[in-house]
Design goal:
Aminopeptidase; globular; 32% strand; 24% helix
Length: 290
């Protein structure tokens, strides 16, 4: 089969369009909105096989500026993995994984990815190890919310610029396991958390959260300084709240003693390389998933 390996081709519109169409077909995810609003990230590096100008197999390495155990490091997240049906069972993704690891290993501290169950065997063959993640759940006493909080609309340019400013100047939500990546954060705001973005002007802080019955779920807290939960909760509280869960490590939130450390069910987190927290109860921040 006459295939061409191409990397780092975002400056070539025809090939970039092939990649966007490929993700729609394989993962039902359309990145054109992320692109149109100007948040496409060159740190998201493609490794792809093309037949002529048709993309047939691909993956991406996302270089992530992270904090792990208080130290800054560079991690490589593998995502966007797939092959068109008519080109499968020929080892193309395995070749791409090996090429990506060869490229990234000298400058990255470790690799991670999130996979569905049907891909576990493949990633084990590639040298990745599946690990458990855990989230913290706390009991709280509900309170009525203050009025000085604004729900943001990411389709509103003024709001979008405010979100990006906060994200660009943020500190990691955790010193144990945190991330700095404003462009990936904007991806989450545009696609998955667009209805959950709130701004507390007095704290100059974004809080992304949702409430289902008496459970409050906090996805991320974004600001130059991460306020403790005791300062944030009066703005987002509800009289009926009973429990709160955090989809990131809670060392900066300081919410007290957890009611439960809960295993993430059906978690597909995989690691490769020297990850310092591998044998502990850790959680990658929700908005670090590419």
């Amino acid at each position: 089969m006459n295939l061409t390996l191409r990397e780092n081709y975002w400056d070539q519109p025809i090939l970039k369009k092939q990649f966007i169409d490929f993700l729609i077909r394989i993962h039902r995810l359309d990145l054109s909105l992320w692109d149109r609003f100007g948040y496409w990230d060159t740190k998201y590096r493609p490794f792809s096989f093309f037949k002529d100008n048709l993309l047939v197999s691909s993956l991406c390495v996302y270089s992530m500026d992270m904090t792990v155990q208080g130290k800054r490091c560079l991690a490589a997240q593998i995502s966007g993995v797939g092959t068109l049906p008519e080109f499968r069972r020929q080892g193309l993704n395995l070749k791409l994984i090996r090429k990506a690891i060869e490229w990234a290993a000298p400058n990255h501290d470790f690799f991670f990815l999130f996979a569905d169950k049907e891909a576990y065997h493949f990633y084990k063959k590639c040298g990745f190890c599946r690990v458990d993640e855990y989230k913290a759940v706390y009991e709280i006493s509900g309170v009525p919310a203050k009025e000085n909080i604004v729900k943001l609309n990411v389709r509103n340019k003024k709001h979008r610029d405010l979100i990006y400013r906060c994200a660009a100047g943020r500190e990691p939500v955790s010193d144990i396991l945190g991330i700095r990546n404003e462009r990936l954060f904007m991806f989450w705001c545009l696609y998955f958390l667009k209805d959950d973005i709130y701004y507390i002007e007095e704290l100059d802080t974004l809080v992304l959260y949702e409430r289902q019955e008496r459970l409050l779920t906090i996805f991320d807290v974004v600001g130059k300084k991460v306020p403790p939960f005791s300062e944030i909760y009066p703005y987002i509280g509800n009289n009926n709240d009973k429990t709160v869960e955090f989809l990131f490590m809670t060392d900066k939130m300081n919410p007290g003693r957890p009611k439960e450390i809960r295993l993430i069910e059906d978690g597909g987190t995989h690691l490769y390389g020297n990850f310092p927290l591998e044998n502990s109860e850790f959680l990658f921040p929700c908005t670090s998933h590419a």
